[in-house]
């Protein structure tokens, strides 16, 4: 490549990265092989559905294929790829579920070896010992090779124009014996090397991790092997049962590499962590831990110092350093799948979402939330439907706000709750946090689609006597949480927040300075009311970068709700302990959910009235100052319009201050400093007293009594001595 072409390429790459940054969301990543990559991490930065994707008119789809699906799908670009038990291979549009192409391989029955993508080809191992390569875009067969007379049951690991996999020889009682691991060139299906098992164990689901120059995999005789990836020569091999002193039995999980350690499970019921030097390819048996979790074939996923792993009847969370337990989530059926994890919503709080399936007659898919310091799993949502989700053996793939998985009842699912844009070509294109132009929100609330900037849903349980909380993490959503006390049992209910360009379709214009327009909905229209819920609060944020802190009066930032055909100010308080360098947080009280507006006021100007008359030799002047903040009982300013009346409140006081630097203490009569309230179309002086014990070098403090809230001003009288000759001044 010449210098000019290099510069063009660099500019093109930079432009792509710049577009990704400007979009406000991560560019969608591929899930191109088992557990996403060659180290089987199972971790992605892509978003995924964190509230029920089956609620309302969601974008989720299902597609019944020709036979059972017992492997996890892979995702590359706009297509999902999967193979079925009747030797069919499918490429499916990831947003519509429509079949783009299909072709046939060979063999039939339970296809257990996961497919992989590389060099624009899909690699499909089969039950009758062959490997096929199909053009990823067209489905045209590029080559097929007979590898073995045995089943190819391991996931295919792709790296740098090569694929790695093993075969399984049935040895009775479900055991596999005398297996071989292979390396093939993807260009034409040429074998580069093969290595026979030295332990006598075969390779059944035992996928390899590739780190540095080494390939690491386990077998059915509890051996762990490290070989040179280019030659297949053995670098290190251990009998895990001997090293750990337990009956390991078959190792049928793939190996996961994470931070110089290897993680895996076994049918003997253990999860293991073992040190590994990826520079030398050697195992560090002095750095090793194991814990009993129950029989497992699940490949662990490691994130933020935690291990997520499935076993018989549970998904467990363990400390990554020593595998001590943190929490266990019990389910009906076995978790044979390998958990997939989205770290998209981790903003330093450890928020992650874990997705897994259960292999059971009543198979389910689950989404769990975990975070720093958590000791109990949080079920975000789950889905199961008889006849469709029965026997979900394999796990999920995550890409760009979607999850994909298949079942033994022939169904492939694409699940999401993202907003989608219909462009002029009619194709749906994802937009996780907003878009320009007209948006077709299939999760419809009735709001004008072109008015919606950002859209987020959350789901939670409503149980009598318990606090219900919805949390939101989309950075373009200014609502951070909603909570209330449920007065009735209503099970799972969805909350929807829409951030708007302008006033809601359901509201009128508001005569205030508006920071943000938005809608909040709980359940169907009319569902959220005082009969079903009490003590409703909404927490929201204001970004400092979007306001002028020198002119915006923070004490006036208020959440307003449109009901009874008018805008009503809600009781709003600032959450001062949560403020950070970028954000101010607030909490407001409401009795229901409809259109909302976050409003604010600017600081009022300080004015001094001119002398109004001369009484003898004295000039009476009025000093007038509008309250602008830094006073007590701030919360009363946020009360609903007309709410603070003598029928609802009594003994109301306002404390305020006067800065000595702003008055002339020699002629201002401190006893005349008074708080005045405007009501009944006139200014009324309030009973005001000086708080002498609080005075300091800079400030005088006062307390006034009032019967309500409306505009206020502070006034004072000043005395000025003048000479006779200046009487007419």
UniProtKB/TrEMBL annotation:
Residue stretches making up the Pyrrolo-quinoline quinone repeat domain: 58-106, 114-272
InterPro entries tied to this protein: PGF_pre_PGF (IPR026453), PQQ_b-propeller_rpt (IPR018391), PQQ_rpt_dom (IPR002372), Quinoprotein_ADH-like_sf (IPR011047), WD40/YVTN_repeat-like_dom_sf (IPR015943)
Pfam families documented for this protein: PQQ_2
PROSITE patterns referenced in this protein's UniProt entry, alphabetically: PROKAR_LIPOPROTEIN
Coiled-coil annotated spans: none
PANTHER family xrefs: CELL SURFACE PROTEIN, OUTER MEMBRANE PROTEIN ASSEMBLY FACTOR BAMB
Protein name per UniProt: PGF-pre-PGF domain-containing protein
